[in-house]
Write a structure and sequence with these properties.
elongated, mainly alpha, about 350 residues
């Protein structure tokens, strides 16, 4: 088995407010467009509309204007940088735009070639390299960016991630620490530090998860991984307490129900574990490991018929799941002795 880390008045007022906001937004966009129409070759005016669309995460609209800017001035470093940013962001959610990754690379290289002091361009170049799995090149880009502007906590964090992917954990730890020195409230770096130490089964993992939870007590990644850390170190009471805290925020977290059931199995509380695995199955009906685990509990409790049902269901979902296949074979053999 595996362990899985005055209502009506309010409505009227809200509608009126939303309509007013919509009119304001529309007026702002119309005003920007009118100015551009009067001066279609004024890059600064076009960039104002780019900034407007970027604030709304309308990357396609921003990119349309940026291509217009680049047709006017292809040697504008900021326009190349922003175009690369838009191409990169769009490629993250639109898999049909497979060419956008290369276009992002082309634009970011242009931006750096035009202005080698553009630290934002080096940062983005590093992020793009990470997306392509080029971790050494990413680190080189991040170092160049940080040499020009050190106080970029996200870039320290991303460089730590690149080192981590290369298996250079000490360097990764230094980078995550640098990120927190710049921004002590950046929860992602606490989580990454905890993950590094958890991979070594170091007690510092607990410290960093708890620090992350001080910032956001509902952070499900921290709660789950901290509970798993406790579980792996046989601190079952702490594990159960932390898993239950997670369920307060995500009642249908199948892996959490499964792990709680596993702990109860370890404590020989199979009747309780049955209910935990049932909750996991309710949360994820395709969770074949939970059917198998519940089958073990039923078999231990002497409910052979229900154990067979669960083993068969696990196999139906995953015909290559050998644990359930072997368990069902053994169940049938053992029952033949008494028939």
């Amino acid at each position: 088995m595996r362990l899985i880390l005055l209502l009506s008045l309010c409505i009227i007022f809200s509608c009126q407010t939303n309509n007013q906001d919509s009119k304001t937004v529309k007026s702002e966009l119309v005003l920007l467009s009118e100015k551009i129409n009067q001066n279609p070759n004024d890059i600064n005016l076009i960039l104002n509309r780019v900034d407007y669309n970027l604030n709304l995460k309308k990357y396609e609209s921003a990119l349309f204007d940026l291509n217009q800017c680049l047709s006017i001035d292809s040697l504008n470093s900021r326009c190349n940088y922003l175009a690369a940013f838009c191409y990169f962001e769009i490629s993250k959610y639109d898999q049909t735009k497979s060419e956008y990754g290369k276009l992002a690379l082309d634009c970011i290289k242009n931006s750096i070639e035009i202005d080698s002091d553009n630290f934002l361009a080096f940062s983005l170049y590093g992020e793009i390299n990470i997306a392509y799995g080029r971790y050494k090149q990413a680190i080189d880009c991040f170092n160049k960016s940080l040499s020009k502007e050190y106080n970029q906590y996200k870039i320290h964090h991303l460089m730590g991630y690149a080192f981590k992917k290369l298996g250079q954990h000490n360097e990764a730890i230094n980078c995550f620490q640098n990120s927190l020195n710049v921004n002590p409230e950046y929860i992602e770096s606490y989580i990454e530090l905890a993950l590094v130490y958890q991979s070594k089964n170091d007690t510092l993992a607990e410290t960093y998860y708890l620090n992350a939870l001080k910032i956001d007590s509902s952070n499900e990644i921290s709660l789950y991984n901290l509970a798993l850390y406790y579980q792996n170190n046989f601190l079952y009471n702490k594990a159960l307490e932390t898993y239950n805290s997670l369920l307060d925020f995500d009642a249908f977290n199948a892996n959490t129900h499964y792990n709680i059931g596993f702990i109860h199995m370890e404590l020989d509380l199979h009747d309780i574990a049955v209910n935990n695995f049932a909750d996991a199955i309710y949360s994820n009906p395709s969770f074949f490991e939970s059917y198998y685990a519940r089958g073990i509990c039923f078999e231990t409790l002497g409910n052979i018929a229900q154990a067979a049902v669960d083993y068969k269901r696990a196999i139906e979902i995953n015909p290559e799941y050998n644990f359930a296949i072997d368990a069902l074979e053994n169940l049938n053999k053992n029952n033949l002795k008494y028939n």
